[in-house]
Automatic annotation (TrEMBL):
One of its GO terms (cellular component) is plasma membrane. The lineage of its organism: Bacteria, Bacillati, Actinomycetota, Actinomycetes, Bifidobacteriales. InterPro entries: MetI-like, MetI-like_sf. CDD domains: TM_PBP2. This is ABC transporter permease. It comes from Bifidobacterium callitrichidarum. PANTHER family: BLR7065 PROTEIN, SPERMIDINE_PUTRESCINE TRANSPORT SYSTEM PERMEASE PROTEIN. PROSITE patterns: ABC_TM1 (PS50928). One of its GO terms (biological process) is transmembrane transport. Keywords: Cell membrane, Membrane, Transmembrane, Transmembrane helix, Transport. It is found in: Cell membrane. It is a multi-pass membrane protein.
Length: 307
């Protein structure tokens, strides 16, 4: 008696239609990210590891230097001075943007009669192109005919040379705060709208005044919104070039790492020395700093969700 062994072939695994659909929807975003984000990032890092000049940039024969350019940039006193100015610019901008934006959000959250109209008026700086905003502030801070100095003169105060090299940092900080307030206002106002009003009523019945209600209800419940607002504000402020360049060309104390990289990559004139590799090094440092803060945000968000 013979036995016949039949071998049944396993059916081939088929990709589910839902998986294909998901990849189909994700493909345009993935392609976009690869072309406009990953590719420039890789190119920037590559340029920071080679010695690029005008000639080698065209010929593509830049010699490999490894971390030598990083060491050269970090070893210069100019780097540490610019880093300090960048930290002052970023920290002060974020503190005042957030504080003023939060105060305005709480104010407009009362929903009085002119609340919507006034809130819309505060969005104007956010809607203006940076070129126009920078030009406006440059005119307002003009030492001779600027609006700010004219107002100071009304009170008998001497004019201030806002755009002079030693004071230019404070000039661009003021302008950048003005630009960032609307963003903070919009995000924080949206967060306030999601807080249950019954909590405030219960707190009022318990005898809490407005200040106590803010610190015990508003501020704690706004913590997730605050974290993302500060993160986005930090990243945006760290890479700010336009408003600074229009107002001061990044000269004097107003030079930040972002404007320094722009200056080295494109120069201030036809005779300026172009330093592509050094500019790429500074750009890479900015990317790493932003990435570190993004990871800190994700870690803090994870801890908050665990609670």
């Amino acid at each position: 008696m013979t036995t016949h062994q039949t071998h049944t072939a396993k059916p081939a695994r088929r990709i589910k239609s839902t998986t294909l659909a998901a990849w189909g929807f994700a493909a345009p975003l993935i392609i976009y990210m690869l072309i406009f984000y990953v590719s420039p990032l890789v190119q920037n890092i590559s340029m920071s590891l080679h010695r690029y000049t005008r000639r080698t940039f065209v010929t593509g024969e830049a010699p490999w230097t490894g971390l030598d350019v990083y060491k050269e940039v970090i070893a210069t006193p100019e780097f540490w001075t610019t880093l300090r100015q960048t930290l002052i610019f970023v920290v002060l901008s974020i503190i005042f943007q957030y504080s003023i934006g939060l105060a305005l959000a709480v104010f407009f959250n009362q929903n009085f009669k002119l609340s919507a109209g006034l809130r819309g008026a505060f969005l104007v700086p956010w809607l203006l192109p940076p070129m126009i905003s920078g030009t406006i502030w440059q005119w307002m801070m003009d030492a001779d005919n600027g609006l700010i100095n004219n107002l100071l003169g009304v009170f008998g105060m001497s004019p201030v040379w806002w755009l002079q090299a030693d004071k230019s940092l404070w000039a661009v900080i003021i302008a950048n705060i003005w630009l960032g307030i609307p963003f903070n206002l919009v995000i924080l106002y949206s967060g306030l709208q999601n807080i249950n009003g019954d909590l405030y009523e219960a707190a009022s019945l318990d005898g809490c005044n407005a200040w106590q209600r803010f610190w015990k209800i508003t501020f704690p419940l706004l913590k997730p919104v605050t974290m993302i607002t500060l993160l986005l504000g930090f990243v945006y402020t760290l890479r700010t070039v336009d408003i600074i360049w229009i107002m001061t060309k990044g000269t004097g104390t107003s030079r930040t790492l972002a404007t320094w990289a722009y200056e080295m990559a494109f120069g201030k004139g036809t005779s300026a020395t172009i330093r592509y590799s050094e500019a790429s090094v500074v750009g890479t440092i900015l990317i790493v700093v932003a990435l570190v803060f993004a990871l800190i945000y994700l870690w803090a968000q994870g801890k908050e969700e665990e609670r």
